[in-house]
Amino acid sequence: MPADLNHPSPSLNATRARQGRWGSHVFWVLVISTVLAALVLFGAWSMRSGDLARVDHTRGATTQEEAQQGTTPQAPVKQGPAG
Asked: What are phi and psi of 22, to 5 degrees?
């Protein structure tokens, strides 16, 4: 179909043509995605909260047998002055 020369199409500058429309749908996509990200973050934290609250897994080896089970090299114990 030939172009109508009597009624040319409206022209837009490059900046206007590249801009997206802001509407309520964009707002809701941002809100819902932020809420979902917060829920995932809270869920991951709550699954590991028991491990994060414990300190016994960070105390180190108490016996020679426990120390030999680990993969870190053994080092002599640093002793402070008696008192």
From this structure: -100, 130
